[in-house]
Design brief:
about 350 residues, eight-stranded parallel sheet, two-stranded parallel ribbon, about 45% helix, binds S-adenosyl-L-homocysteine
Amino acid sequence: MTDLKKIIQNAAASHELSAEQIIAVLKDDSINDFLFSAADKVREKYVGDEVHLRGLIEFSNICKCSCKYCGIRKENTSVQRYRMTEQEILSLAQYAKEYGYKTIVLQSGEDSFFSKEKMVSIIKKIKDMGFALTLSIGEKTYEEYKAYKDAGADRYLLRIETTDKNLYQKMHPDMSFENRINCLKNLKKLGYETGTGCLVGLPEQSIESLAHDILFFKELDADMIGLGPFIPAPDTPLAEENGGTLTIALKVMALTRLLLPDINIPATTAMETLEPDGRLKALQSGANVVMPNVTDKSCKQKYTIYPGKAGLNNTPEAYKLSITSKIKSIGRKISNNYGFRNKF
Ligand code: SAH
């Protein structure tokens, strides 16, 4: 067995890797299949064969941020903006209930219209419907995060995007890296199941910094990691740049599974966007969650964080059927429970 294979095999048992070891694995593509299969086994051992489906509602694409990679950044005037009413959000949640989803994920741009009071009202009503609830609505104050938690929100997704501070500042000219870290610490402190993650393949992103991203996930003891390839979006400053590949995104994901064996890891839409069966590959390389979009078609088509998003023409019903049969076709089951992290 080669040295790299031994490193991967040891990590599958010890859940530890040094930055140098991660870099060596990321740089060598001859061991990819070995890495994916090791992550798949760790996934099976710790979180089993069940796949958790989380119903995603993209409730507003209005955003005050200028993230250079993002298609719904505020400068992009070619986006048709929308904002759902509370009633529209709740009726989508009702559909999600009928599809059997146990979790609702509420995601949006950073839209100040949704004040603390408005969010609290939506959160309470979704919780009353019997869902676990994940929020993905960006940077807020400690008081706001606390109010959402007190109202019943269970989980929060806030990707660090990159741990390379210089690159972070370049990508988010009007934001602060320290504040992002602080938000993640606050979420942990408040008892949220905290999710983070990164973009893979950003311009000027080094392999070394991806290794640090992975170690950061471990250091934070993240409960969920969502990551995907950067996909250049039209009408953004990065429109003409190269994007990330599915392979490197899967490698970062698989290494994350080796280091954090018991967490929830989604097979993300960005992965499916680059290859028709990207999600299935992800589910066989460490992932155990899928987030089917339950947003109605006209809004979903306007939530253009990147182009060509997989599933834009599917109805939520058709998607539920197709993902269920795909998951079963690889010998996996659809979970019936809320899918919280069971910490080992
Ligand atoms: N406003 C929320 C939700 C952002 S959208 C927040 O700040 O958390 C969710 C994720 O989409 C982002 O965290 C980012 O990692 C990803 N994303 C944005 N633009 C992208 C692009 N061009 N390619 C791939 N992923 C992108």
